[in-house]
Amino acid sequence: MLSTEARPNLLLITVDQMRYDCMSIEGHPIVDTPNLDELARTGIRFERAYSATPSCVPARAAIFTGLSQVSHGRVGYDVSVPWRYDTTLPGELARAGYHTQCVGKMHVNPTRSLLGFHNVRLHDGYTLYNRNRTRITAANHFDHADDYLPWLRERAGAEQDMLDLGLDCNASTVARPWTLPESLHPTNWVVTESIDFLRRRDTTKPFFLWMSFVRPHPPLDPPQAYWDMYAQEAMPARPIGDWADTNDPGLEGLNPVTGKGLVPKRRLDRALAGYYGLITHLDHQIGRYMQALREYGVLNNTIIMFTSDHGDMLGDHHLYRKALPYEGSAHVPFILNDPGNQLGLARGTKLQEVIEMRDIMPTLLDAAGLTIPDGIDGESILGLARGEKKDWRHYLHGEHAYGMQSNQWITDGRHKYIWYSQTGEEQLFDLLHDPTELHNAIGDEAYQEEASRLRTLLIQELNGREEGYSDGERLYAGCKPKLSLQHLLDRTN
Predict the structure, then answer these.
(1) N or C: fewer beta carbons within 10 Å in the chain?
(2) Does domain 4-394 have CATH number 3.40.720.10?
(3) What Gene3D superfamilies does the record tag this protein with (predicted)?
(4) Distance between CA 493 and CA 435 in Å, rounded?
(5) Thinking of the domain 403-492, which architecture would CATH place it in?
(6) Which residues are identified as catalytic?
(7) Residue 37 and residue 335: Cα distance in Å, rounded?
């Protein structure tokens, strides 16, 4: 085990709702990400990284605990259940002598829970749970749940609020530029506070910093310079599969927070411009932080990990937002970089093994030379990143309770099998030959063996689940989905 003095600093950078394909190094035809490209070019790029339960709360539970969604108990989006986990990533690092700090989004309950961090500078964005004025008291005012908003009001006026631009916090199809100085944008705030942590940290200890951005999660509000980069671009057509619903009799696409429907092209193009602008803005601010690491002389002793908690459908197949099993929603960017070459990584390589949010905790503990606690479902990816041959997981089980769109899925990185638990609808995609999931091959004779294999894996994964989805022999559609499993509810009562 490494001594405290010999341990590297750890920097975890997460963004919220960024798709896997929105980096220029991935060949994206529009978005420009020079700093992320450099981290990927000189690091390891995991091209089959997924969020098994692709929405904010369950994805962050996997990051914090290293557990699968079945083990941590959050199989849907439920902000009301308290977080009571004995073992967390920041807690383990703090016990090992790390100075631990989070800046930005946590999205836990109670909102100000530290979960092992020594300090949190919190900005979860506009969260409906905390802004519900029908349940606010003097002791439970939403101002108490956020550090960015008081900071903003000190600098821009007491009347400032998160709704001033008229954009809903989940409006994936409406965008406009940020109107205040760029330095006051929440993305800049995360970096400003993170740089200040470098000043005030305990320099006798290694540090763990989770720099957790809310953007490019809506509102789609890039600063003017970043809006201008994309506002006049001709946006490529979105991929529309042969299975997609091309009818919208209820005009759901006109709803700015819709999850599906036919959105007017001009509106969608502006939303894409806003989304891409937020990503380039994030990229430049990450570059700003890299420069700060150099100035403080700690860059070469810092392990850097970058990922997103989930993606955004962005109009693929006329679908929007997250919680769905498709690549736009569940497939995320994932980069591991070691500027000082402390870990012996095979730098500049791309890996195809299927990794997931649960692998973050064991990887960072491994990088720190610490023992990974018993019972952790995730695995350290350092062996993969060093080019060592290893028997890695053969598939990933993902899911999300989501009303009539509640879904279960299996992928091995080559194929993906999807089962909609309320209707029984099945889909199969050949990800190697059809990466944008244009053709549902579930009925194709050539894919019947693969469909049967993946369906059997899902039957096994769901066998005995409390919802009643499987008896070990077959799948049962129509069972009521649960957002949180009973063992989680029992633990928090």
Answers:
(1) C
(2) yes
(3) Alkaline Phosphatase, subunit A
(4) 43
(5) 2-Layer Sandwich (3.30)
(6) 56, 107
(7) 10
